[in-house]
């Protein structure tokens, strides 16, 4: 019975991983002394699946959730950094801000610059949101203000961007 639960919960997590509850149940079926090896096995499986599913880097929310659950902050940081996606950075910065603040500022900066190349009011509103998030990091306010000014100088011909970003940090 225990083996069946062990096998079933592992399979459910790996194949229907939208819930960490299967992961937690699976973890309870593994002896503590064997958990490290099992954890490595799950991580390897998820990394292998990610590489076969895309031509480019594909962020694994399942891996990120495991890293959070197991408090593997260094591994989570690497995933977020490699994603090079502002929405991923925004979603996971709260878990990383204590240990990786200066690196997150750099990631935010690069991601915001890339994101702000797009046009439209919704893009500018999102850019404002991301700049605010960046400013809340340790030593992030100065970097966020400087980036805002850089964006406004780079995109002088975007009145909507100016309207939305100009009042920020005043």
Walk me through what this model shows.
- The protein has 170 residues and is an all-alpha fold.
- It folds into two domains: 1-58, no CATH class; 72-170.
- Helix content is 78%, strand content 0%.
- The chain has helices spanning 2-15, 20-28, 32-53, 61-69, 73-83, 86-115, 121-135, 140-154, 159-165.
- It is elongated, with a radius of gyration of 20 Å.
- It starts with a helix and ends in a 5-residue tail after the last helix.
- The mean pLDDT is 90.
Q: Into how many domains do the coordinates divide? A: 2
Shape: elongated
Give the strand content.
under 5%
Low-confidence parts? none
Distance between the ends: 63 Å
Q: Fraction of residues in helices?
A: over 70%
Give a quick set of tags describing it.
2 domains, mainly alpha, 170 residues
């Amino acid at each position: 019975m225990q083996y069946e639960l062990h096998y079933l919960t592992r399979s459910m997590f790996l194949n229907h991983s939208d819930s960490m509850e299967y992961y937690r149940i699976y973890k309870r079926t593994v002896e503590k002394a064997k958990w490290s090896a099992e954890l490595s096995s799950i991580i390897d499986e998820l990394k292998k699946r990610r590489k076969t599913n895309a031509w480019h880097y594909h962020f694994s929310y399942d891996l990120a959730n495991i890293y959070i659950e197991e408090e593997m902050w260094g591994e989570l940081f690497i995933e977020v950094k490699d994603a090079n996606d502002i929405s991923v950075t925004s979603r996971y910065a709260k878990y990383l801000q204590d240990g990786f603040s200066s690196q997150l500022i750099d990631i935010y900066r690069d991601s915001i610059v890339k994101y702000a190349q797009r046009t439209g009011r919704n893009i500018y509103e999102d850019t404002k949101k991301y700049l605010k998030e960046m400013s809340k990091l340790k030593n992030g306010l100065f970097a966020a203000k400087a980036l805002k000014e850089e964006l406004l100088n780079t995109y002088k011909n975007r009145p909507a961007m100016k309207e939305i970003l100009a009042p920020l940090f005043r």
